[in-house]
Amino acid sequence: MRIVLVNWARVWDGASHGGGINGYTQGLALELVARGHEVYSLCGGTAYEAGGGPGDGGGARAIGPCRIIRHPDWLGIRVAEVVNSPVSAPSLAQFRDPEGEVASATLEARVGEFVREVRPDAVHVQSLEGFTAGCVGAIRRAAPRARVVFSLHNYHPICPQVYLLQGHRRACVDFRGGEACAGCVEAPDPARHRREAAGIKEAADGFESVRAVAGWHESMPMVAERRGCIAEINQQRLPPVWSGVDLPARRPVPNVVPDERQEPTNEYGRRRAAMVAALNSCDRVLAVSEFVRAMYESKGVRAGVMRTLHIGCRLSDVVASRPESSVPPPPMVEGGEPRAVRAVFMGYHNWYKGLPMLLESLELLTPEVLSRLHLSVIALGGEHAEAEVRRMEPRLAGLRVVHGYRYHDLPWVLSGTDVGLVPSVWWDNGPQTVLEYQACGIPVIGAALGGIADFVRHGQDGLLFRGNDRYDLARTLAGVLRRPGCLESLRAGVRRPKGMSAHAAEMEREYAAA
Question: Is the dihedral of CA 164, 208, 49, 99 positive or negative?
């Protein structure tokens, strides 16, 4: 089959630029190539250049015309990219212009031309960041016989800043037809961001660039493309509205889908309506977890077009091919005494993945209990939390801080680990970290939020605590540290998740189901 995978980030960057979605896209693309398919990757929304054609600024200060270029093939994948897209990616760069994500005749014409030239059997959309809702219709018109599949990895179609978190801190439970989105987060002007990305200098007039508002994610490494270079952005800035002690963002989050299907009242509401209509026009919409399926069904996506399909984990294939890479921990009792529990937090250092909450929960433990914990923090951007983590070091049995990792090193990095920590503070869609721990045979202590409960069976292969509840996480950790033998029985219950090869076979059936 000839298959087009659509995502905003370049496929060769994997999770290092584009997070879990791009890591998944890369893994799926490589597996499909290995299975003999002709695979194209179409990305867009980050590459801009100055030019004389029509653009955001006009005249000599304009970016060039929207066009699609071909890059050299990468490991058998045919790579194409939209240059000068009128929609910026990632989503926060576009946040202030929600209607720009509804339709663009220019962008949709380019996408249609590309699809007509490729003549795919299937188009698999991973994300519409950098594209418009109208691009789905353009694909359908250009390739009426192609199977159009959309994977719901995150909440971007119903939330212009992706995470359904007001101010990136508290769960958004009332959309109010789009009124809740207005002023939700600080964001740059999208048109000026595109010109800045193209290297067009702006007069100093108070404009805040992407670099200046990178505190959206509180220390998450954001990336901005400038003349072909990736610039890491790691600034910290807590939103002032939640700078006090009694933060609304610290209240427990119930794992309940908000009932909020209101009529659109502004441009953000119209954006959501257009995205839902685009999803309903697909042949199949795949949710990465049951919670995500329920969330989107509550927003108007037809049950008949949508089903839950858990993604595959490349690490399962790695461990299966190299079983010596995943070494189990030593027995819990050494010389008649329980040894320290080796726990790992892995992923991004940011608010919503829960590292700040984890550290606050550890502060609630008594010194006697905390002294039984050996903690590893393996986090991209973790250098911004290192001072806070190091403050605990005298009270811990041991501490390891690593600022990032390479994906295929994970079995070795995680060898000897007793338990993985996934303390997400919002409805995490289907965190791949859970699957990566399980691929290495490691039980998980995770928040009972979003898709985490799809994968962690409480009391069988892990433990669940109430979402965003620091006291319940501290209680759960204290129980494990006082009775570490429970981790051995939990480890015995861990099932290795399906690998990417098995998942690619599932996707082949989806692509061929026309």
Answer: positive
Closest to 30 in 3D by CA, of 378, 440, 411, 407: 407
What's the confidence (pLDDT) of residue 24? Answer: 95
* Interval 280-292: pLDDT, tens: 999 999 999 999 9
Q: What is the pLDDT of residues 59-97, one digit of tens each?
A: 556 899 999 999 999 999 999 999 999 999 999 999 999
Domain positions in the chain: 2-201+240-312+505-511, 319-492
Q: How many helices (H) and strands (E) does the chain have?
A: 16, 20
pLDDT band per the 50, 70, 90 thresholds, residue 347? confident
H or E element that contains 447: strand 444-447
Q: Which CATH architecture has domain 319-492?
A: 3-Layer(aba) Sandwich (3.40)
**Residue 74: Cβ within 10 Å count:** 16
Question: Which amino acid does the sequence have at 60?
Answer: A
| Intrachain domains 2-201+240-312+505-511 and 319-492 with the same fold | yes
The encoded tokens of residue 408 equal: 């295929």
CATH class of 2-201+240-312+505-511: alpha beta
Q: Are strands 419-422 and 444-447 parallel, antiparallel or unpaired?
A: parallel
Say how many Å lie between the first and final Cα of the chain, rounded.
Answer: 12
Q: Are 101 and 133 in contact (CB under 8 A)?
A: yes
Q: What local confidence, expressed as pLDDT, does residue 189 receive?
A: 94
Q: What tens digit of pLDDT does each residue of 306-322 get?
A: 999 999 999 999 999 88
Q: Which amino acid is at 181?
A: C
Query: Quick one: 168 exposed, middle or buried, by C-beta within 10 A (0-12, 13-18, 19+)?
Result: buried
Residues 238-282 pLDDT 10s: 334 333 444 678 889 999 998 877 789 999 999 999 999 999 999
Examine the pLDDT at 220 and tell me if it is beyond 60: no
CA distances from 281 to 139, 146, 379 (A): 11, 13, 39
CA contacts within 13 A on the Cβ side of 201:
2
Q: What is the mean pLDDT of residues 365-374?
A: 96
Where b means 16+ CB within 10 Å and e means fewer, 360-377 reads bbbeebeeebbebbbbbb
Q: How far, in Å, are 86, 94, 163 from residue 102 at the CA level?
A: 11, 12, 19
Tokens 């509840």: give the residue.
469
